[in-house]
Specification:
It is built from eleven helices and eight strands. It is of the alpha/beta class. Helix 1 links the parallel strand 1 and strand 2.
């Protein structure tokens, strides 16, 4: 059976929709027995989640999703069992946000040139307030203007288009991810080794998130990534097809890595993704026993 979901985002992620208390209620309804909220570069949801999870008799593992880079490739690393009160998390988040916002005008310039639109960068930054303006927000802004439906580059994201099942997410991966037309790398990049050190120094362990998405065509980097100190691989994820699940499961076994799974639930920006569903079967008691056996908790 599957009653574990270790990759969920709250409103404290720049692209999350729900408060931690709402996510825990939803997890309970889905019969989730072990969960983790892993917001992008932030750990503040954990305090609320820990106390509420107890009320719902859900085992809670503290978490965060750290953006970083290895050999020039953008990665996401999940940190579990961390001390969520460590001030390093919020300090780093503020640095990442300031770095990103300073580059946002360049991103928008590239999008405007490529799509032949007129995105108002400052307006979006002002509206975002305490969060970064992500690709999903930009896409929502563009899709809110009916005239953009006539734009052949945007038409696929409108209802009926071939990218309309999850338009906001597809927009980011199609146009703003590494190697795409509007990609701009952060000035102050966190290297994988530093991300792992932050996680382990806070008492946690690192898991490579959805590698099939970030390492597509660069799978030869996997062993080096694990050797940096990554303890596990997120094998079961909505971003992996059957072949990728088989491949990364075999690699995890070969490299003696923990096998994890998570839905990467965000809410409305990823409407096809539900809490608890990640193409895998992970049972809470067995998983916790493995964490203990590996001395990860």
């Amino acid at each position: 059976m599957n009653n574990v979901d270790l990759h969920i985002h709250s409103i404290y992620s720049d692209d999350g929709q729900y408060l931690p208390k709402d996510l825990i209620k939803m997890a309970k309804d889905k019969k989730i027995a072990l969960m983790s909220i892993t917001d992008h570069d932030r750990a503040i949801a954990n305090a609320e989640a820990i106390s509420i999870a107890k009320e719902y008799d859900i085992t809670y593992l503290t978490g965060i999703e750290v953006s970083c880079q290895y050999e020039g490739v953008d990665l996401h690393v999940l940190g579990y069992g961390i001390d969520h009160t460590n001030p390093q998390w919020e300090t780093r988040y503020r640095g990442v946000m300031n770095d990103y916002n300073s580059l946002f005008y360049e991103i928008v310039d590239k999008l405007n040139a490529y799509l032949r639109v007129d995105i108002d960068a400052q307006m979006l930054i002002d509206q975002a307030g305490d969060k970064m303006v992500n690709g999903e927000t930009i896409c929502h802004y563009l899709l809110s203007d009916p005239k953009n439906k006539e734009n052949p580059l945007l038409r696929p994201y409108f209802p009926g288009g071939d990218r309309s099942d999850m338009p906001l997410v597809h927009f980011y991966w199609d146009l703003m991810a590494q190697g795409k037309p509007a990609y701009v790398g952060l000035t102050n990049i966190t290297e994988l080794s530093k991300a792992i050190k932050m996680i382990t120094s806070a008492g946690g362990f690192a898991v490579l998130a959805h590698p099939g998405q970030n390492l597509a065509g660069k799978e030869d980097l996997l062993e080096g990534i694990i050797n940096e100190g990554v303890s596990g691989i997120e094998v079961y994820t909505n971003y992996h097809n059957k072949a990728q699940i088989t491949y990364y499961k075999e690699k995890a076994l070969e490299l003696d890595c923990l096998i994890t799974g998570g839905s990467d639930f965000h809410g409305k920006i990823k409407p096809n993704i539900e809490i608890g569903k990640h193409h895998g079967q992970i049972e809470k008691d067995d998983f916790l026993k493995e964490l203990i056996d590996r001395k990860l908790i």
